[in-house]
Specification:
Blueprint (H helix, E strand, L loop, with lengths): L1 E7 L2 E8 L2 E5 L9 E7 L4 E3 L7 E5 L3 H7 L8 E5 L4 E2 L4 E2 L8 E3 L1 E7 L15 E8 L2 E2 H6 L4 H5 L4 E8 L8 E6 L2 E7 L7 H9 L9 E3 L7 E3 L4 E6 L3 E7 L1
Parallel strand pairs: 6-17, 8-14, 9-20
Antiparallel strand pairs: 1-2, 1-5, 1-14, 2-3, 3-4, 6-7, 10-13, 10-18, 11-12, 11-17, 12-14, 15-16, 15-19, 19-20
The structure holds magnesium ion (MG).
Length: 250
C-alpha cells in the first residue's frame, strides 16, 4: 500500500494512494487504517511530506564506496546523527540554498518510516516496528559540515530533508535500486544490498539509545557519487519499488 499526506482546500490529511485517487484517512495510519469516506483525484491535491517525524536519525558512511570517496575511513559501528524535524519537506517543495554555504550536496537515501513506539528492539525483530519506506535526500552543506566539529549545522538547515512522494508499505528493502539524478543526469546508482549495516541492525543499534516514535525516519546512508547542486537545479531520488522524489534548489 502507498500512503501520503496531502492538502486539499487548505486542509491537510493522511491518505492511501490508489492509482490516481487519494482515499482520505480519519487519522494517521500508524494506529490503524480508517477511511473517512472522502476521495480526491491525485491531480487536485498537493502532496505533502508523507510523514511527520519527531526526529530523523541518519547514518553516516553506511556504504563502503561512499566512505572511500570521503577519504575518512569507515566507522566500525553505525555513525548516528540527527536531522531536526524542521528539515522535512515533501515532493515538489523547494530546497533553499543557504546564503552562508557555498557547497550544497545531494545524498540520495532509503528512508525507513517507523510505525510504532519502540525501544531496545532485538535483532531480527525490527520488521514489526517498520511502517514502510520512502525516498529521502539528506541535503548537506558540505563546507559547513567539514568546518564544524560535528554535523548539526551542515545537515540541519530548514528544507534539508525532502521525503516522499509516498510511503510504500509492501517493499522488500534488502536489495532495491537507489539512483540520484541532477537535471536528469545520473549521479548516484547503487543498491541497498551494499549497506554496511542493514536496516535490522540499525534499528537495534538506534533503539539501544533512543525511543523511536511513529512517523520517525531513519536515513540509512548514501552510496557513492555525492556531488554539489546549484540554484535552479532539479534533483531526483528514485528507489526501486517506491518511486521518484523530485525537488528544485532555489
Ligand atoms: Mg547521508
Amino acid at each position: 500500500m502507498k500512503f501520503v499526506r496531502a492538502m486539499y482546500a487548505d486542509d491537510s490529511f493522511y491518505g492511501e494512494l490508489c492509482g490516481q485517487t487519494v482515499k482520505r484517512l480519519a487519522h494517521s495510519p500508524y494506529s490503524g487504517i480508517v477511511y473517512d469516506g472522502r476521495e480526491y483525484p491525485l491531480a487536485l491535491v498537493r502532496l505533502l511530506a508523507p510523514a511527520e517525524p519527531t526526529k530523523i536519525v541518519a547514518i553516516g558512511k553506511n556504504y563502503r564506496a561512499h566512505a572511500d570517496e570521503m577519504g575518512e575511513g569507515q566507522p566500525p559501528e553505525p555513525l548516528l546523527f540527527l536531522k531536526p524535524s524542521t528539515c522535512v519537506i515533501g515532493f515538489g517543495d523547494d530546497v533553499v540554498y543557504p546564503d552562508i554555504s557555498h557547497r550544497l550536496d545531494y545524498e540520495g537515501e532509503l528512508g525507513v518510516v517507523i510505525g510504532k513506539l519502540c525501544r531496545n528492539v532485538k535483532s531480527g525483530e525490527s520488521a514489526s516496528v517498520i511502517f514502510g519506506y520512502t525516498c529521502l535526500n539528506d541535503v548537506t552543506a558540505r563546507d559547513i559540515q567539514k568546518s564544524d566539529m560535528q554535523w548539526t549545522r551542515g545537515k540541519g538547515f530548514d528544507t534539508f530533508c525532502p521525503i516522499g512522494p509516498h510511503i510504500e508499505t509492501e517493499l522488500d528493502a534488502m536489495n532495491v535500486s537507489i539512483e540520484t539524478r541532477l537535471n536528469g543526469e545520473v549521479r548516484q546508482r547503487s543498491t541497498t544490498s551494499l549497506m554496511t549495516h542493514g536496516i535490522d541492525a540499525l534499528i537495534c543499534y538506534i533503539t539501544q539509545v533512543m525511543t523511536l516514535l511513529p512517523g520517525d525516519i531513519i536515513a540509512t546512508g548514501t552510496p557513492e557519487g555525492i556531488g554539489s547542486m546549484q540554484r535552479g537545479d532539479v534533483v531526483e531520488v528514485e528507489i526501486g519499488g517506491i518511486g521518484v522524489l523530485r525537488n528544485r534548489i532555489v
